[in-house]
Amino acid sequence: MASEAPPFWWSRPDWRAWSLWPFAKLYGFVAGQRMLRAPREKIDVPVLCIGNFTVGGSGKTPVAIAFARQARRMKLKPGILSRGYGGSAGHARLVDPAHDLAKHVGDEPLLLAEHALVAVCADRAAGARLLLGQGCDFLIMDDGFQSAKIHIDYALIVVDGRYGLGNGHVIPAGPLRAPLVHQMRFATALLRLGKGSDGDTAVRRASRAGRPVFLASIRTRAAERFAGRRFLAFAGIGHPEKFFATIEAAGGTVAARRPFADHHFFAPDELADLSSAAERDGLELITTAKDAARLRHGAASPEFLARLNVLDIEAVFDDASAPSRIIEETRASWKRRRLES
After folding, report:
1. Which fold has domain 222-311?
2. Which of 143, 98, 100, 153 has its CA nearest to residue 122?
3. Which of 101, 116, 155, 310 is the Cys-Cys partner for 68 at CB 3.0 to 4.6 Å?
4. Which fold has domain 7-76+137-218+317-340?
5. Predicted TM-score (pTM) of this structure
């Protein structure tokens, strides 16, 4: 399956969504109550959460990287908190991109660790304390909006412009992690990443709730090097079709596409199959930066990595001053809560 989310979650509600409505009602009640009542430990540095309303890939990772870069430009020492999805670390640990394996810490933390110190742990408070011990003075939490055990000073919710809120139903009838009304209560602002009418629905809901809305897009770095080339493209991310479309937008041709499940760990025989298929059809191999991080610390041989093209992307805000303003507002919120405590 290309994604862990069933395809009907991303289309208009049908009989499958409505038949699961009783289960979604129960799940939504529990998730909503957890958001409303969960104790949140207050950390003695500003905490910016990059979250989303739904499951699946919305583009949080490039947004988190953009804020880490901006924080460093502002002379801060950012640290990134990650649950380490797909990893097996049972305690808070710093990610070492030179030695850690994706199966231990997850693929996204390895990618994030190229830009800032990263702590992985299901207990975000423990990870935060570890980063504070390393001198970090600004924390970026990658995901964890619904289940965070720490106080969030600014919650920026990323919504994919193409997929938006999906069918608008809660798990298991749809992709929402909790009822939107509960989630919106804890959101500070919304970031629509890319264009699309489905994303506009989320923008309207945020605007009606009085939340500011920021706009950004995904840009391919050094896009010109892909123009005129033919690829076998493979990816294990939430929405692989976005990756395929990005290659073609850069001028490349996706002659063959191989989608895998989100956070998929590639076996040696799968990589051999990809390599032989590309050679047989005269194609070049290409994958995402997240998949490449997983492959560098997994089953890929040096020979496979040497012939692999990697599509590097970055989040670009329509208003270039937005990241610095959001960081300043996060710090201001932190200062207010310190005075109130």
Report:
1. Rossmann fold (3.40.50)
2. 143
3. 116
4. Rossmann fold (3.40.50)
5. 0.90
